[in-house]
Amino acid sequence: MNQRKHVFLDEKTKIQRLENKIRKYEKYKPYHEKTAEEDSRLQEKVAMLSIVASNFMMTGHSPTLVLTKREEGDEVMLPVGGGQKDRAREIISKIDFRKLYRGGKGRQTDPLMIITAICMYVMRQDNPRRGDIKYSNKFIRKVGVNKEIYQHISQKLDSYQET
Predict the structure, then answer these.
(1) Residue 98, pLDDT score
(2) How far apart are the first and last CA of the chain?
(3) Cα 121 to Cα 7, 87, 88, distances in angstroms
(4) Structural domain range at position 139
């Protein structure tokens, strides 16, 4: 077996290697330090959100301020319109899905299922008696959301909203 000769590095090469190592370790940040643009998992969740939002026809824009007359007679700028998609995106970016709904013991978990339940939660906040979101809906059934899963996730979301 041939023995390798030891190569002495000149100063310029040493500096380049150190710079490369520094660049390598700066590229990988801890999860809590990443921004939304850097976090690929969050981007995937937001992409899933747009699929679910288009299925439910959620309102995507932020509420617009409109001049509205109140009973007292004065005119006030009040928010009108949805922003459901924005609220769902905010919830998705803040909350850890593993704490929201855990799998195991025969329970299947899927990010799409959890995102669907979050969208249902946001839409029912706007209109509690919403009757057009049925668990027999083809999309909801295919994703795997049922009444028990939705109630579990909505209870967790309520407790997060209070804190």
Answers:
(1) 81
(2) 67
(3) 64, 10, 9
(4) 37-162
